[in-house]
Write a structure and sequence with these properties.
The chain is an alpha/beta fold and 549 residues long. It is built from 20 helices and 24 strands.
Length: 549
């Protein structure tokens, strides 16, 4: 039997209401033996070999942070590409300054293209958004280069814009591109399922093993820097199953990786907006046999309603968008209902991508039908993202027993921009209405959807408790949550969303010995300073993993 290690700390926040605070936690074989004080642990220590580890004596221990919805494959692809974004990004290997005008965007893109001189490489960049960067279309990209394939990935990852050389490089028959409902060749725009058509051709470059492994190493660093010990991949596969799985397994199933990843497969294959529900159920069942220690599937599946939030393709109820444009369905409503029913009858936990209030409504209407047809307890039907909603939908979520995994970062980056340019002040200021969820008693988690937001749980908690927009203004203070709720949303309630609350999310006897080590106590700092708390590192299954200095 292994020796017991006892970690002491200035304070331990257990996230267990029965024993909220402690000063020592005993660990053996990767699991918690008991939490309390050196005095209360004495019966264990008197009878078993042990040692006291005081390295965290001046630190605060919390349960390991959990992000239940991010995309390591997406991160691995994009982190090897140049970023041109409206917000500054601090990445493990570089700082990307903010670019906030059309002229600056085009100049920066031309500057990057010039750096490719002497090569025949394609240029793929990420971060474009029309609100800040104006109309960047096929003609604009042709003016930068007529010979180099250029692909501009929109900030949402739901849209690609290509120049003529890029369209030709894809190698897809022009007739097939012209008749696709979500491809506009006149502007070079590939969106939603049309984007997936372009991505399939880009795979051979973006997922080249050496390049992809380099990207995954950067993702590993980003995840660790955020203080995570568990993450959830919420749409597997992103691009290519066989290649993706091989590279993920080779890179992440290693002893030096201080986190685990629960994987939720997408109900339909990438690029598909319709399919046979029974065949998809059988396909999903086949994933379970791949489970390993750090990479594993649960009893969950991912479905989609409406389009990307950053792409302004969410489906909106009246009065819709200010400029009159409409959102997009990622799954036609009737197709969504068929697939939801098939997976409901299989007893799956269903996660639904919903960004607009009409997308939320479709998800809730479907859940209501399914509950009437075959009632289920503890089904944990999960609304993912929860961009725009209305107060009545919060009540329905509570009544139907659903839960939420919210991206509150929308409010910080897009709140003011969408107020002025997209959906008006009322709905923009109330996006990600997590305060209403707390008042209604709905369990909710906070996620990054990385790279849609930085993979920083404390940053997500900071937005949730302050609702500070990019300018520093507070948007709809009534939707702020308590600090307790925000910290639960990145620990025990995030574990609940992943159906892993019996293993992780709080510090109690029997659970995995996963801890995030903080240099300040979140309950002792001003709320506006929450995101600035330094993270020492993590403990994963009893093994400390400090951040490199």
């Amino acid at each position: 039997m292994a020796e017991i290690t006892v970690f002491t700390a200035k304070k331990i926040h257990t996230m267990n209401p029965s024993l909220p605070h402690a000063s020592a936690v005993a660990v053996r074989d990767g699991r918690i033996i008991e939490v309390g004080s050196l005095e209360t642990l004495k019966p264990w220590l008197d009878q078993h070999a042990h040692h006291i580890d005081n390295r965290f004596a001046d630190h605060v221990i919390m349960p390991g942070f959990i992000d239940p919805h991010l995309h390591p494959t997406l991160g691995a692809i994009l982190l090897t590409c140049p970023f041109i974004t409206a917000m500054e990004w601090r990445l493990p290997d570089r700082i990307c300054p903010a670019v906030t005008s059309h002229e600056a965007y085009v100049a920066r893109l031309a500057e990057i293209e010039a750096e490719f001189a002497g090569t025949d490489d394609i240029l793929v960049t990420w971060g474009f958004h029309r609100i800040w960067h104006g109309d960047v279309n096929r003609a604009v990209l042709n003016a930068i280069s007529t010979t180099r394939p250029i692909f501009v990935w929109q900030r949402s990852f739901h849209e690609i814009i290509a120049n003529d050389a890029g369209i030709e490089w894809l190698g897809v028959a022009r007739a097939d591109l012209e008749r696709h409902p979500q491809i506009d060749l006149s502007t070079g725009r590939f969106f939603e399922t049309g984007m997936a058509v372009a991505a399939q051709s880009l795979n051979k470059v973006l997922m080249e093993p050496t390049r992809f492994r380099r990207g995954l190493e950067l993702v590993k660093q980003a995840v660790h820097l955020g203080g995570h010990t568990t993450i959830g991949e919420l749409a597997y596969p992103l691009l290519d199953d066989a290649r993706e799985w091989a590279l993920l397994s080779d890179t992440l199933e290693r002893d030096d990786v201080p986190f685990r990843m629960k994987i939720t497969p997408r109900a339909l294959g990438r690029g598909k907006f319709e399919g046979n529900a029974s065949e998809d159920v059988e396909r999903i069942k086949g994933f379970k046999g791949r489970d390993s220690h750090r990479l594993f599937f649960g009893n969950s599946v991912k479905l989609f309603t409406d389009g990307g939030f950053f792409a302004e393709l969410m489906q909106m109820m009246d009065p819709g968008f200010i400029d009159g444009h409409h959102g997009e369905w990622l799954m036609a409503p009737e197709q969504f209902e068929k697939h939801a029913r098939a997976f409901w009858l299989e007893g799956k936990q269903i996660h639904v991508h919903c960004t607009g209030d009409m997308g939320v409504e479709l998800a809730l209407d479907t859940l209501e039908k399914l509950q009437a047809e075959k009632p289920r307890f503890n089904h944990r039907f999960t609304i993912e993202h929860f961009g725009v909603s209305n107060p009545e939908q919060v009540r329905r979520i509570a009544d139907l027993g659903a839960i939420v995994s919210a991206n509150v970062y929308y409010l910080h980056e897009l709140g003011e921009a969408y107020w002025q340019k997209s959906i008006g002040f009322e709905r923009a200021s109330q996006m990600a209405r997590v305060g209403s969820l707390e008042r209604a008693g709905v369990t909710f988690a906070l996620h990054s959807d990385f790279t849609m937001a930085p993979a920083l749980p404390l940053n997500s908690a900071w937005v949730a408790v302050n609702r500070i927009a990019e300018s520093g203004a507070v948007l709809c203070a009534e939707e702020c949550v308590s600090l307790d709720a925000a910290m639960r949303a990145i620990t025990i309630d995030a574990a609940y969303v992943l159906a892993m609350e019996n293993e992780i999310g709080s510090i109690r006897a029997g659970k995995k010995a996963d801890f995030t080590i903080l240099e300040q106590d979140p309950w002792d700092v001003p709320l506006e300073k929450l995101r600035d708390i330094p993270i020492w590192g993590t403990v994963f299954e009893g093994t400390p993993f400090p951040h490199s200095k």
